[in-house]
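Standup notes
- DV: blocked on the single-chain target, sequence here:
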Amino acid sequence: MGRRPRPRGPVHDLVLVVDKPAGPTSHDVVARIRRVVGHSRVGHTGTLDPAATGVLVVCLGRATKLVRFLQAGWKTYAARIQLGLETDSQDTTGVELARIDASHLDEHTVCEALSAFQGSFEQVPPMVSAVKVGGERLHTKARRGETVERTPRAVEVSSLVLDGFTPGTVAEVSVLLTCSAGTYVRTIAHDVGAALGVGGCLASLRRIANGPFTVDEAVTLDALDRAGPEDVLARGIDVVAAVRRTLEVVEVTDDEVARRLTQGGSVPPVGHDGPVALVRPAAGGRSEQLLAVVADDATAGRARPELVWTRPEELR
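- DV (later): unblocked, structure below
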């Protein structure tokens, strides 16, 4: 196993939006970026399967501490589904289990089936997923040919729109969908096919948005491989700008409150549900500064830090 690269210079705290190609794993993408920037503090905010393409949000430096806050948003995908074909992996890379003539399906029938998968519902994770059961990931069990009981999980699909339909013995359906984190699109493809009585599987998947980060601003992996470290860093999104896209932000102008936050202390409640970023605004030639991410504690009547970003000595 190769060693992670030692830092060759300053470690920059940035968020980078990458357009992942089909083939490499999300970890492969992270490893390649580590080599380019010359340090190991690189992580991503949400796995894409090797065959999937599109937006992979990568955090560099201390921005890796923000992963759990940046990965919680809605995901938008362009997906292609084959109806009339069922596989053991719920996508076309798997072993074929059944093939049923789907030539009787029409666009109206498919639209009606898709409508049942909008809103909140429970979904059983596929055996090829990274969910852990009994301390082991499901895809590890699947590689041994095992199938185990999986606990359904609540997911939400806010939008599922038919984007194209090609009839045939294996009908092809293109959809655009926006869903909550943790939703398995391959399982939606499988379940839509089951609802139509012909079976279904995912043929292709492209993530076009991960929360507020879109494919339009993404850099390709080939471009990153050709770029030098400074070119890669120039494409990054500043930590405060990334946080402003994803979290509620409250500005802190009181120096004493700012100091208390850098020491991990609690502050008066901020009055928002969920995590809130506390930012010291720009002033007197000083750029704005992320201080902490907090959440209200109703029992204590205070807002407590979930992440302290700025250390006391960094307070400008």
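- Follow-up: The chain has a mean pLDDT of 91.
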